[in-house]
Design brief:
This protein is an alpha/beta fold. The chain folds into 2 domains: 114 residues, Nucleotidyltransferase, domain 5 (2-Layer Sandwich), CATH 3.30.420.40; 110 residues, Nucleotidyltransferase, domain 5 (2-Layer Sandwich), CATH 3.30.420.40. It has 8 helices and 12 strands. The strands form 3 sheets. A 5-stranded mixed β-sheet has the order 3-2-1-4-7. The chain has a 5-stranded mixed β-sheet with strand order 10-9-8-11-12, covered by helices on one side. The longest helix is centred in the C-terminal third of the chain and has 19 residues. It is globular and about 50 Å long. It binds beta-D-glucopyranose. The site of beta-D-glucopyranose has 15 residues, from α3.
């Protein structure tokens, strides 16, 4: 079976038709700019545009950068505040005429990585991190996803929210060298280690492609791996979970 997977990010909305058995793309990737301000109505219009591009009438899965409970958006750290309280499943389904299911973006990307990435079928406690504008987290145990963990919002020792200290956006904003940022990121990983004692950490998001630039600063006990599916994980996972 094929499902249209859509990844809603801060700068772009990307969609592809995914084969659920293999996790492979069965169409090209279509990308449009994320509307600004990213209000729920405008995002719904963009999703409709992606569905129309593929002439899609079937199921759609979306990854969204917020806590999502039963399709309802509960938080808005890096998106428009008007998203809070909106039933995204309902709104996006109505707009597209398709059955749309929405989940947290890190949860879907981590799910795809565990199904089709190099750690396929690993059963131990695993934390998947996406490092971009924010820090997204997904927790897995014995292949089960524990959704909406939001460990990117824990307070670090210096009383800063982790994603305001160690995200990729902060690296760029503060013009940190990879070495300086890598040290900060290592502090965050040490903190996570103490908090949840994972058996494996997987790094996703754009930063995972640059792992070799900061891997020398990473000094933790837990095995850590860059993700294999890279930027495609969000689309594949959204389709799988739908
Ligand atoms: C949001 C998370 C999201 C992460 C990555 C954070 O700011 O709170 O829900 O997964 O950014 O997009």
């Amino acid at each position: 079976m094929d499902v249209l997977g859509i990844d809603i990010g801060g700068s772009g909305i990307k969609g592809t038709i995914v084969n659920l058995k293999t996790g492979e793309f069965v169409s090209d990737r279509y990308r449009i700019e994320t509307p600004q301000p990213a209000t729920p109505e405008l995002i719904a219009t963009s999703i409709h545009a992606v569905a129309k591009h593929f002439n899609w009438k079937d199921k759609i899965g979306c990854g969204f950068p917020a806590v999502i409970q039963n399709g309802v958006i509960k938080t808005a750290s890096n998106i428009d505040n008007s998203c809070i309280g909106v039933n995204a499943n309902k709104l996006f389904s109505k707009k597209t005429g398709c059955k749309v299911k929405v989940y947290n973006d890190a949860d879907v990307a981590g799910y795809a990585e565990l199904k089709f990435g190099k750690v396929k079928d690993f059963n131990g406690l695993t934390i998947f991190l996406t490092i971009g504008t924010g820090i997204g987290t997904a927790l897995f145990y014995q292949g089960q996803l524990i959704p909406n963990t939001e460990f990117g919002h824990v307070f670090m020792n210096n009383k800063l929210i982790a994603e305001h200290y160690a995200s990729d956006a902060i690296r760029k904003k503060e013009d940190l060298s990879w070495k300086a940022w890598g040290k900060r990121f290592n502090e965050y990983l040490e903190y996570l280690e103490k908090l949840i004692n994972p058996e494996l950490i997987i790094l996703g998001g754009g930063t995972s492609k640059k792992f070799e630039k900061f891997s020398a600063q990473i000094n933790i006990k837990t095995p850590i791996e860059p993700a294999q599916l890279l930027n495609n994980a969000g689309i594949i996972g959204a389709a799988l979970l739908a």
